[in-house]
Amino acid sequence: MLARPLLDQLIVRLLEEDLAGGDLTTEACVLPSARAVGNAVARRPLVVAGGEVFERVFVAIDPEVRCETLIPDGQLVETDAVLWKVRGPARSLLMAERTALNLVQRMSGTATLARRFVDALPAGSTTRIADTRKTTPGLRALERYAVRCGGAHNHRDDLGSAVLIKDNHIVAAGGIDSAVSRARARAPHTSRVEVEVASLAQLDEAVAAGADVIMLDNFSLEDVGRAVDRVRREQPGDRARGLARRPLIEVSGGITLDRIGELARLGVDVISAGALTHSAPAADIALDLVLDG
Known about the structure:
Blueprint: H1 4-19, H2 24-29, E1 35-42, E2 46-47, H3 51-61, E3 66-69, E4 76-77, E5 82-89, H4 90-119, E6 128-130, H5 140-149, E7 163-165, H6 167-173, H7 176-186, E8 193-197, H8 200-209, E9 213-217, H9 221-232, E10 248-252, H10 257-265, E11 270-272, H11 275-278, E12 285-291
Helix pairs in contact: 1-3, 1-4, 3-4, 4-5, 7-8, 8-9
């Protein structure tokens, strides 16, 4: 999650999108003296995410608004569960309603989908489910927090946080070996070097180059099995060449729920799925308002 000052700056920008011209309907219909209580209700089962975000939207509109969290982030709830309660001037609640719901519906939808992917892992599996950088512009920190609420993990946060050598990097660098050696010379000692490969031949190159993590991009199930066998099998002379420590194996590309179990049983370390963020349906959450007093 973003630090609160950064979160509040983001929320102000999002509110400007909805309120640049004011709220004509609310200002015309609702008396300034009216006060109300709003219950945020789950209309369908979901994993909760975004309680702090929900509160900060209302507070940004009106510091007088009070928000109560009834169910913590990360918890699975059933239909009709009340997640959060807000209380304050009715005008303020109405002006904040849509922006607050847009954010928590997106976040809770992401958390819910992430939980489905995690639950698809076989019992006892050590395979991690991870997201990717395929996030909504401006909302990455919120969506990645939601992924964690669902029990999954985050990939690199941004381009500066880790080395991930992809297909176009390999072309531009003149090959896997040169890309990895240059990355080793430049990257901090705390950073792993990951290489995306599109074939078993490239897999062998990445292993020989000493990659720490190898991403199998759009491999068939059969080729994933072959890749795991190759990486896990120690060859004569590997220890002398410093290759006894094998790279982690990540699988990405075309990841769907029905493939999770099969891939995990093959022994891959990480399954990364852009769908966790770019294809998560919004959760169904509504704000039910009643007059207060």
